[in-house]
Design brief:
- The complex is a heterodimer.
- Chain A is mainly α.
- In chain A, 50% of the residues lie in helices and 7% in strands.
- In chain A, the strands form three sheets. In chain A, strands 6-5-8 form a three-stranded mixed sheet.
- Chain B has two domains: 2-85, no CATH class; 99-208, Cytochrome Bc1 Complex, Chain D, domain 2, CATH 1.10.760.
- The chains are: A mainly alpha, B mainly alpha.
Chain lengths: 312, 209
Amino acid sequence: MKQALAVSGMEALVALALIISPCLAVAQTANKSATKDVAKDVTKTAKKAAKPASANKVVADQAEEKDEVTKDFEKFRAVMEDSNPAELFEVQGEEFWKIKRGPNNVALAETCDLGLGVGVVKGAYVQMPRYFTDADKVMDAERRIVWCMVNKQGFKEADIAKKPFANEGYTPEATSLVTYVAAESRGMPFAVPMTEPHVQDIYELGKEVSNYRAGPYDFSCNTCHGSDGKRIRMQNLPNIASKKGATVAVMGWPGYRLTGNRMLTHQWRMNDCFRQQRFPEPKYLSDTVTSLLTYMTANANGAIYRGPGIKR
Amino acid sequence: MKNITTRIATIAATLVVTAPLLLADARADENYRARAFAMMEKDFSGKGQATVDRIQADGLQTICNRTGNKPPAEITKQLEADQAAGIKFPADGKLMGNWKEGEKIAQSGTGFTWNDERGAPPGGNCYNCHQLAPKELSFGTVGPSLYQFGKLRGNTVEMQQYVYKKIFNSKAFNVCSEMPRFGHIGALEPERIKHLVALILDPESPVNK
């Protein structure tokens, strides 16, 4: 199962047990005074929550035990959502947003327009993807933030694209920024502006991409996400065409992922699903990925965003 | 093989003409489909063994894509026959191997992703989508449960042939099946497919206990 499609229930359990160590690792990467307390809190709740999962009770009906794993995770996540390690990246991202940085030495807070006016962050995440006239493109949050880093602060896109996603010891600045921006939409409804023609257009393209079968296994997104209530191994697969499924698909991203203990964005999720689809790799911040994010997020329009989440 | 390819090409060509008539808003669909494909062509790059040409749909995939996985009956019949014609059988003519080997193949979820080792034999991925032996609780539900398949449906030569062929090329029976064509694409050779047939049909296999 080393490189399998899916992570087994067992691995999820191991990940639960390991939550204690990642929080300490996170504490080292974020250099804020508040960090330590948050990490301590997280550790405490993690210890409490991880207990029922590791209790080795024999369950007569084995199929039920499997559901126990899922239930434990759900309980665990509920507890964690109050003291999610993602908060550390929010704090970091806020700093990146506010201080002057890059070759041009300007702050995003004074130059970057996320769609609601220069510097406005509140509510911006749930209203993306949207069309930006200055770039003449529909952009999701991550794409827009990197666009600002490049076009306002003077960073090189090629440098950013070299290592776009986090690993255990490294979190890209864009990831922290996305986490901050996302957190500033907590409690607000998704509202992708579907009346705007460019957005409508890329939505239709996203729908096509999600149907498109190719590659050695003949897979499309829909193979795994095209009907209700399916699973790959133990992992539930939301039906992205339905409002309910799309809501699951966009909720909790960006998310702190227990498998690998890292902060990951929706862009990463698309990248990893294309890998499982046996497709080649989508370029970072491509139209194709934006089209899928538009399709799914717009399908979830109206649902209340709960902020950066925890993922298995 | 060539024969099949030409036939698929002919069918595909026919479809270009007939598909618009089959779908209400086909014109808009065609337009978005073509543009979506152009977009994907520019947006992907090869990584590891996942080369960029994988974006190109083959004949059968093209027809499934164009018809929302429901080609007209005539074309379906033809395509299924073409897929069936490519199925190769083991040299010794035996279709049941060793279920223990089959279980290992069914468990492995590797193969064809950009981080799978090139040249390493791909796994069957069966548990990703199917329930099989009851002790494996981590099974997917994209496909139907195969638990007790042999017990319920028997293990006659005909049944062995069906299961063998289904694994070799699922599209021979259901042209736009979500199940990969394991033999057709060379992921599983006849010898390993035999082991999977045994896993599903052998009365000694845990699947049938």
